[in-house]
Amino acid sequence: MFTKFLEQYQIGESWLSKGRTITEADLVMFSAFSGDWFPLHTDKEYASRTLFKQRIAHGMLVLSAATGLFQFEPGVVVAFYGMEHVRFTNPTFIGDTIHLEVKIIDNQEKDNGRGVITALQEIKKQTGETVVVATIKLMVNKSPNH
């Protein structure tokens, strides 16, 4: 998705990523890395007594895993610029397969041959349910010929 120079993006253009299945190992490794051992993510018995009836993936794990589904082109993408309006709208369970649906909603030229692309990001699972929605921003270069 983020493989083109600034002036090549059109408002409304969209992209669909490949999928990635969230595993129990993902939850364990994310807990170890982040220090977030909240029982809703790590304790099967505790989670069985919640409204979800089972363990759910950390919201930040889902966001992090989704980052790996983007396509970034070195020399085009300068940096991740920010994220706004993040909402975790449905649970992601062990065994769910997530994918990204991304739509360009803004394209702003900045200075020094760069600009910011703004996109609506929806992370969805195999059921079609949206599990995370956010507005993301990436700083990208303009074409060297522009």
Automatic annotation (TrEMBL):
Lineage top rank: taxon = Bacteria
UniProt domain MaoC-like: residue ranges: 11-123
- Give the signal peptide as a residue range, or say none if absent: none
- The name under which this protein is listed is MaoC family dehydratase
Source species:
Polycladomyces abyssicola
